[in-house]
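Lab notes, practical 5.
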Amino acid sequence: MGRPIIVQIATVGCSLRNFLKGYASFLRHEGFEVHGISSPDGDLAQFAAEEGAAVHGIEMRRSIAPLRDVLALAQMVRTLRQIRPVLVHSHTPKGGLLGMLGALLARVPVRVYTIHGLRMATATGFKRRLLKWAETISCWCAHQVLSVSHSIRDEVLREGLCPPGKIRVLGQGSIGGIDAGNDFDPKRFAGQRHVVRRQHEIPDDAMAIGFVGRVVRDKGMVELAAAWRTLREQFPSLHLILVGPFEPQDPVPADVEDLFQADPRIHCVGNVQRTAPYYAAMEVCVLPSYREGLPNVLLEAAAMEVPVVATEIPGCVDAVQKDVTGLLVPPRDAA
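Output from the prediction step:
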């Protein structure tokens, strides 16, 4: 008899890599065989290489796409029946829905769903009702639901998405963890401050604000742009570093993107493998997001001893000691 199989499912490969770094390796050490399922992309292949996991590509759209979702669900059921896992653990809204429904239909013995945040939090009308229905179905299909933070668990219960006895938080909240002793050790990256600033022509004595994350509307980019327009006039030597990709899903308004791309004191870095050198180059990290689960960015900034200004929303309130490690401000408030 072979080793028992655990399957991890997320909509895209980067979520598997971000949420499960070291996790599959640990499970293999404990005697399990680990498989990963996501949309077929380069990150899924990297997850396989980094974690020693078998992987399977199933095209899943982040957006609402009924016909494609039905096809993906059929493929999910077929794949799970072939793998025959003892446990399926799914993440992200679409991966959660298709993963939990597929595992139920494939009669997987144990089904776990982790809620990393509520996408419905910023939706309205029919879209909000649809997203709420999807979360409810995912929770109903799961034997156990995990929330990455206590404030998100409170939101789930307030919205009636899951029974109280079925959802729990591990410790004080957790995603994949932050390696503060290595990957985000400020002493290790102290010398990178000058390197990063020289690369982007930022003087060593200038102040720099940094943002790390997807450059999308839900991350509060409209407010960040409005705040920058004021700050750049008040502080002529101030710079803004944006670390992360512009994404077509939930794009920023055209005028905001034009500002970010054209202003010589704004530095659009794009997607990077290692963010620690950029934290070393900034004085303050900002996260003006409208919705979060337990934001990695704030944990990373804290590990790098960089103070933060973040919005006072679920997820952020679990990661910031208010007025100690950072400031919490109302969402959608540029001032």
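Observations recorded by the TA: The chain has two domains: 5-169, 192-329. The chain has a mean pLDDT of 94.
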